[in-house]
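Quarterly update from the structural biology core.
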Amino acid sequence: MRIKPDGADLLDTVATVLREEILPALPADKHSRQHYALRMALNALGIARRQLQAGDAAEDVEYEALQVLLDEDGSHEEMSRSFARLIRAGGVDEDAALQRMLWRLTAQRVSESAPRYLSQEGLSQES
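Predicted structure, tokenized:
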């Protein structure tokens, strides 16, 4: 067990300082370069925190599913490349299992980068 504050707590602290201390000190123009840079930094911190919380479980499930669906063996990177080649070749167009896999991968990435988006659009990770 890690001593507190752990990595997620540290990311939260940085985000809070940026949001509460730095953001109010920026120029009033919310479209300025500084506002944009700060929003990107805060988004990156949020993504890092969600990935840290999720751990490797999603990637492990993805890797195992790719092995089964593609009936291949190799590293996770190799399997992802094989899946990308299959998509580009149209090999997912008529395969419901591969389409579900593609949706799960997309939904997982969206849930890390923009966690409210799926629910705002009335979508689920299982669609």
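Residues 57-120 form one domain.
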